[in-house]
Amino acid sequence: MHKIYKHFQFRFNQSFRIFNFNPKVSLPVILVFGALMIIKLPQSFLYSLLYFSIALVFHINRKDIPFLKKIFVKNWRLIVFLESSFIYTIFLMANINYKTEKFGILMFLALITLSFLEPKSKPFPTFQWNFISNHLFEWKSYLRKNTWMFIFTYLILLLSAYNQASLILCGVFLLDYLSHVYENNENKEMLEVYFKKISFKEKIQKNVVFFNALLLPVYIGYLVLNFNESLYLLYYIFFMNCYFLLILTRKYRLYHHHEKANYFSIAVFIEYFVYSMLIIPAFIMIRINTKEAQQNISNYVGN
């Protein structure tokens, strides 16, 4: 029992260190948790399914089973069950709209089965996303590396159309992922070839169309469910597109072929978040970024 107590104490300290020293992890986790606290679903059992799926995703991606087997030779399955149950319970109880019901309690039996399902040592197959145009190479590369996380995030995003609060909160959560789509720099040769084929304005247009195509189901879903509150949707569209354009134009404003990334930080997130909230400052900054990005690109591609 003492060993189990020490283990969970270690887990708590480990989580605290991750959140404290890695804002790229802590910020999206806090935003997602906040969104899942207030999300309202039409049926109570859907909360249980949603939060069980979160515990399942955690279990599938865990790589510490061999470690647990060595430390807790006979009780490692109990640890797996307790950790999965803790994740499931904390999300379930934190939701302000959830009311205890039988299905939610029965899901603990399903959590027991997780302790008998060991994650595969081989990584899960990922989609190649070949149907995405090469003009959207940042998206294609990002989705190939983060296929399952994207699918899970996109499902949450679709659910966010339920009401105004979930729409805004999940939108803010999405901003962090957008930032990392355009964080890495392509090499000099690729940039030269790319911008000899299309202009920077054409790149912006293609990326904006793709981005809004991804959000289109959310737009439609929100209008269907909340037509009388469509003003929120209009602001949401402006807000999301402003942030998206700020991140995209920033990449090429700062681009240098010796740098592998443009080093997105929490300070940049907050700055662009505020600009996007106010909209007009975002328009001004987008224009400045675009002009400087075009000048920077011309240094590599020429006229």
TrEMBL record:
It comes from the Bacteria. Keywords: Membrane, Transmembrane, Transmembrane helix. The chain crosses the membrane at residues 21-39, 45-62, 78-97, 204-225, 231-249, 261-286. This is Uncharacterized protein. It comes from Chryseobacterium turcicum. The lineage of its organism: Bacteria, Pseudomonadati, Bacteroidota, Flavobacteriia, Flavobacteriales.
